[in-house]
Design a protein that fits this description.
Layout lengths: L7 H26 L3 H10 L1 H10 L3 H22 L4 H22 L8 H5 L7 H20 L1 H9 L1 H6 L4 H18 L5 H16 L6 H26 L3 H20 L1
Helix pairs in contact: 1-7, 1-10, 1-11, 1-12, 2-4, 2-5, 2-10, 2-11, 3-4, 3-5, 4-5, 4-10, 7-10, 11-12, 11-13, 12-13
Length: 264
């Protein structure tokens, strides 16, 4: 594996893994604490519509997925804020709509024969330089927002009604969390894919909860765990020549099982 470090695609894969792990650790903590994992999953799968549209129009896939995912995050935020009794139905509909729309546009694209499995299950060794810049900028954007609005995020995460009484715009910050989650999902497409991205958001956070009781600590530990899982998964993927996305998630799940057994 050390010999492989001389190759640029391996260097890019390591950088991509570290960058997306930082974003996943921070956003995973907010997603889990706010109990919106299902919403993040809906955004993840509906963003496939943006991929299909981008392919059909000949636009960069990352751009199409980003714009579409953010739009879907805003729509989901609006619908779930004012119709909480039907959240599961709304997410199911948006989920199916995005996936179906993406498939239709890909089918309508003449002469397109690229394997779409990499978007569903990830291919970290195929991450281009432009995606790495996107991930790096995303990390800076997320860290800046969390540092600047940490008190607001903390308040709405643990007691939204009290936060509203204190004058915090709960609807705005709820929507902002969903938009940040959407951007993280798009960045993770090439690393673990749309199908497995929720696992990368939730497993490190679930483990971090066992070792800390503060949101800030949870974010840091989640990011470190996600980085470890991603790099170990990359090694397993390289050595055994298996899918990188699946390797990363399997490493995370095995670590989760081991930790839970020893804690008992």
């Amino acid at each position: 594996m050390l010999d492989a470090l001389q190759y640029e695609f391996i260097q890019n894969a390591i950088l991509a893994g570290i960058f997306i792990s930082i974003a996943a650790g921070i956003m995973g903590s907010l997603v889990v604490v706010n109990k919106i994992t299902f919403l993040a999953g809906g955004i993840a799968h509906s963003s496939y519509g943006g991929i299909g549209i981008a392919i059909f129009l000949g636009l960069p896939v990352l751009l199409g997925a980003t714009v579409f995912a953010v739009i879907m995050a805003i729509i989901i935020s609006f619908l779930t804020l004012y119709n909480k009794s039907r959240i599961d139905s709304i997410i199911g509909i948006m989920w199916a709509f995005g996936m179906a729309l993406g498939i239709v546009f890909v089918d309508l694209t003449p002469g397109y024969n690229v394997d779409l499995m990499s978007y569903l299950f990830g291919s970290i060794i195929a991450v281009p330089q432009a995606d790495i810049w996107y991930m790096g900028i995303l990390d800076g954007f997320i860290i800046a927002l969390v540092v600047f609005f940490y008190r607001e995020f903390l308040a709405i995460s643990y007691d939204a009604q009290f936060a509203k009484l204190r004058g915090i715009n709960v609807e705005f910050f709820y929507t902002l969390i969903l938009i940040m989650a959407a951007l993280t999902v798009v960045a993770a497409i090439k690393v673990v894919g749309l199908i497995l991205v929720i696992a990368l958001l939730t497993i490190p956070t679930y483990l971090a909860e066992s070792f800390c009781n503060k949101l800030s600590s949870m974010m840091i530990i989640s990011s470190l765990l996600a980085t470890a899982f991603t790099l170990l998964g990359l090694v397993v993927s390289y050595v055994y020549n298996i899918s990188s996305g699946a390797s990363i998630i399997m490493v995370a799940i095995m670590c989760l099982i081991v930790v839970k057994i020893f804690k008992k």
